[in-house]
Amino acid sequence: MAFVSFRFIIFLSILLITYFLIPKKYQWCLLLLGSYVFYAFATPYFLVFLFISTIITYICGVKLEKLSDACNEKLKVDADVLTKESRKALKNIFMRKKRFILIICMVMNIGVLGVLKYFNFFMDNISEILHLCGISYEFPNANWLLPLGISFYTFITVGYCIDVYREVSEAQNNIFKYALFVAFFPQISQGPINRYSEMSIHLYEEHAFDFVRIQNGGYRILIGVFKKVVVADRLGIYVNRVYGAPIDYNGLSLLFATVFYAVQIYCDFSGYMDIAIGVSDMFGIKMAENFDKPYFSKTIPEYWRRWHITLGAWFKDYLFYPVIRSDWCKKIGKNLKKTVPTIVGLLVVWFSTGLWHGASWHYVLHGLYHGTLIILSFLLASVFHSMKTKLHINEDNKVFHIFQILRTFILVDISYILFRARNLKDAAYIMNEIVFHLNPSKEALKIALLPFTEDNTAVAFFGVAMLATAGVFVCEILDYNHIFVLKKHKYINAVIMLTLILLFGMFGQSSFIYMQY
Amino acid sequence: MKKTIISISISLIIVFGVVMLKNCFSYMLPNDAMGIRAVVAKKHVSQLFLGASAFRKGIDVKMLEEELPGESFILTYNGNQPYNMSLELKEILEEGTVVDTVIADFNPSMINEDANLSDKRFLWDTKFSTKWALWKEISKREDASFYMFYDYFVLSNNEYMITYPVSFPLIAERYYRGGSLDDDAGMTEERLLKLEVAEKPGFHKLQKKAIMDMISICDQYGVKLIFVESPRYIKMADDENYQEKSKALAELLKASGIEYYCATDLDFDNKNAAYYTDLVHMSGEGKRLFTSQIIQRMKENEE
């Protein structure tokens, strides 16, 4: 069920009205039912995988907590009897048991994701290797569909289990309450990748009807819908045409498409987040923010702290730190330089980030590209600092900030070529055309605008796309400078946004981009 | 609550107002470069070329101006079907514009189609009655939906409307008397052969009736009607469905006593890739050759 659809409006309205009419103690039950109904609209067949993931991680969480409690109980009871070594040994025994359960749980969960999402990729690469060795054998490709949101809810559930393992979070003993955390419908298809410890505070609470909260949620939804149907889907028409057949377009068109894609994916994904968070707010449930004006970042590391925040935090907490704190990594640090474990950790994280986005080498390269930039910024920090000192660059200077923001945007936009292109060959072609065959001219510019509509009305389409994009970013710039236009003039903004959505919305164009991951 | 309801109401009122103004009065905005309004503004057109984008890209209006008597005008909309063409012709003639000869697009690709709006400029250029007539037919389609209605009346041409002072001059400078001033380079044979032909069979009763209506309107207003086929690249021309539809259309015109020239009647080399930018549309070179052949035919007919 698409968020921007009549069906969803009806679904949300019914759910919201019922939510505030029923006895408050059953509100979370209604949300659970609603979430499963929402998910079932994708196809009931996908529910099987959601059930499996929920049950496995629920059992894992309960068992892990039981082991933690047993360990703590034993340590407490035998506190006077146990020596320091025996306490350590006891803890190790329980830790081994916990680790075993956690590993089984992760293998099963990530294994399901791995098989469904990466089986064909893995088989194709083996076929390729065999081909290089002179053996011509093609492994058959599986023809199965990827369950909606599997990449997101797998990470949510695995993160939950790791938090329980680390005793950062308590396990949820009620399987139905836990199922709600996993399947909560605003987050299920594209995140955010919420943490149980943060979400559980509000998820099971009783919520009284509060019109202001619903109004604020509705306003946030309006912002999301505007970004999606007025900006993202409009630019998507151009991007899809050009990236769908790059050889048919000139260098300028390819450059436009690349820049437009940066805006499209931001407005699409952050628009979804606005809708999801707005919907969740209406029910009184707080979800994590996933974007913080990422295109105003001054460095790549900063960009990744502002873009898809919950994914970055997940990889940092559940992959990066465990890797660099692992024994083998510590050994590398002892034998080689201390920075090597950090570099290894970053490479593992960015390889995984690339792979998470899709089963294709161009996604992996996209991840490694960002990883390389982050590693270089880390290694060359002192070099950049001394350069700035020698050139008498004032880091607080606004012009320098603008330079940094533009530089970061360009670096990110280059990565989008890898991300959006159909394959590596297309990505290489596009980069080559942009760098070496731009040939800007009045005629080339006229042709470059055509992909919007493939006729002369493209000029008008381009104009509106630019105005709408400018509107989004001007509001962000003002917000960035603490000029809270959106919050101060809420009703006027709502009228403007609703009018623009109704007059310029590209309804029925496409689903959200990140739904495919 | 009150402020929220007022905000939503204000928004809906603004949208309604904009939509009504657009649908009722958009045709009144100045346009002498292309479209129905430009034809109506002429008051008298000697040769009116009426068709789809193949005509727009396939006919050199400046050559017509040099070689043919009186004033020529090319009226085209993308994907123009016989039904839409009949509505356009009706509106032009009812507005009092005198047309001596209509050279209509002999376009087999469109005759199997159900009512459709393939070029939203049609809505911008026509009066509400014409828009409504087309919508009435579209609404009879099995796949007609509320979204189609919304797109048709509410969403169409809003981009053009809001950017009109900038868009219109930029678009208009590429046209002269409705004809495109573009001089496109041809494609290679290799690339043309890779393009897919998507012709479907059939002769829709709506399109058949529309052609009869065009004949009847022209008869009523004393307008000479000729059909001319813009030559398709050989891959498309040889398509079975295309040939079948071409034959059906030719038979209908012959039975109605209407003059027509198929591509095979003209001495046009549709195997030459240099004349085409795709399977349907011509390059600058192809355009000039095709136009010269039409002019020659028309001169021969006059004699």
Describe this entry's structure for a reader:
- With 517 residues, chain A is mainly alpha-helical.
- The two termini of chain A are 16 Å apart.
- Chain B contains 15 helices and seven strands.
- Chain B has a five-stranded parallel beta sheet. Chain B has a two-stranded antiparallel ribbon with strand order 4-5.
- In chain B, helix 4 runs parallel beside helix 15.
- The longest helix of chain B is centred in the first third of the chain and has 24 residues.
- Chain B is globular.
- The chains are: A mainly alpha (517), B alpha/beta (303).
- At the A-B interface, helix 9, helix 20 and helix 22 of A face helix 1, helix 8, helix 9 and helix 10 of B.
What distinguishing features does this structure have?
heterodimer; A: 517 residues; mainly alpha; 3 domains; 73% helix; globular; B: 303 residues; alpha/beta; Rossmann fold; two-stranded antiparallel ribbon
Number of DSSP helical runs of chain A: 22
**Strand order of the main beta sheet of chain B, please?**
2-1-3-6-7
Overall geometry of chain A comes to globular
The proportion of residues in beta strands of chain B is 5-15%
User: Largest interface, counted with CB-CB under 8 A?
Assistant: A-B, 23 and 33 residues
DSSP strand content of chain A: under 5%
Question: Uncertain runs of chain A with pLDDT below 50, 5 residues or more?
Answer: none
What gyration radius of chain B follows from the Cα positions, in whole Å? 20 Å
Question: Uncertain runs of chain B with pLDDT below 50, 5 residues or more?
Answer: none
